[in-house]
Amino acid sequence: MRLLSMKKQYDGTWLHGYELTYENRAGREKTFEMVSRNALNDPSEIGARVSGVTIVAWKDDRLLLLKEFRMSINRTIYNLCAGMLEEGESVEDCARRELYEETGLRVARFIDILPPSYSAVGFSDTATWLVFLEAEGNPCCSLLSENEEISAAFYTREQIREMLKTETFSSRSQTVAWFFKNGCLPGRGKI
After folding, report:
1. What does the alpha-carbon distance between residue 108 and residue 154 come to, in Å, rounded to a whole number?
2. Rounded CA gap, 15 and 25, in Å?
3. Of 75, 94, 118, 123, whose CB has the highest number of CB atoms within 10 Å?
4. How many other CB atoms sit within 10 Å of the CB of residue 154?
5. What mean pLDDT is predicted for residues 68-81?
6. Cα 160 from Cα 165, distance rounded (Å)
7. Three-state DSSP string of the chain
8. Is the dihedral of CA 156, 158, 161, 163 positive or negative?
9. Phi, psi values for residue 146, rounded to 5°
């Protein structure tokens, strides 16, 4: 597989569209459409910049999940707290800000920050740091814009076990929830 060219298709407020032409394994030219959170000027920039953070947070023995309406699927789902990195902002500062803006919670302590990973490789080069942290406070809708419908809550392993049978999740939050309900993520007294 070899990338031959990149052509910008459009610039949106939050996403930029590109058409990539590449040579497939059989030596034939194919096109692929992708979006990026970053304005790309050269193919070497594809996937090179991290867009934000995804937060796995807990308090005591409960996992934080957001219940939020997502326009791209026209439904409410369970998701992890996440957000975009602002100019000059550190990963930790971004996690603190996004956690507070979306939930009203504060960071009690950072547990781990994993290197950036790609969240939608089927159509985007969006990458985020995965931040594990312990939160403090009580969830509330803090600084939400009128364009966001988010409610945050902490859930026990038993609650999550039942939710996984009936509720709709984003894939990353569903994976985290499965590991949490099976005791593979920290709870009270662990780490």
Report:
1. 15
2. 29
3. 94
4. 19
5. 92
6. 9
7. CEEEEEEEEEECCCCEEEEEEEECCCCCEEEEEEEECCCCCCHHHCCCCCCEEEEEEEECCEEEEEEEEECCCCEEEEECEEEECCCCCCHHHHHHHHHHHHHCCEEEEEEEEEEEEECCCCCECCEEEEEEEEEECCCCCCCCCCCCCEEEEEECHHHHHHHHHHCCECHHHHHHHHHHHCCCCCCCCCC
8. negative
9. -70, -10
Q: Model confidence over 132-184: pLDDT tens digits? A: 999 999 998 656 667 778 889 999 999 999 999 999 999 999 999 999 999 88
Q: Determine the pLDDT at residue 188.
A: 47
Query: Which pTM was predicted?
Result: 0.89
CA distance 85 to 50: 8
Copy the structure tokens of residue 93: 């500062």
Tell me what the mean pLDDT of segment 42-61 comes to: 94
Q: Residues 21-31: pLDDT tens digits?
A: 999 999 999 99
Q: Which two tokens stand for residue 120?
A: 């939608």
* Residues listed for the chain: 191
How many CA within 13 A on the CB side of residue 83?
Answer: 22
Q: How many CB atoms lie within 10 A of CB 118?
A: 14
Q: What is the arrangement of strands in the sheet containing 29-36, beginning at the earlier edge strand?
A: 2-11, 16-23, 29-36
Counting Cα atoms < 13 Å in the Cβ hemisphere of 171 gives 4
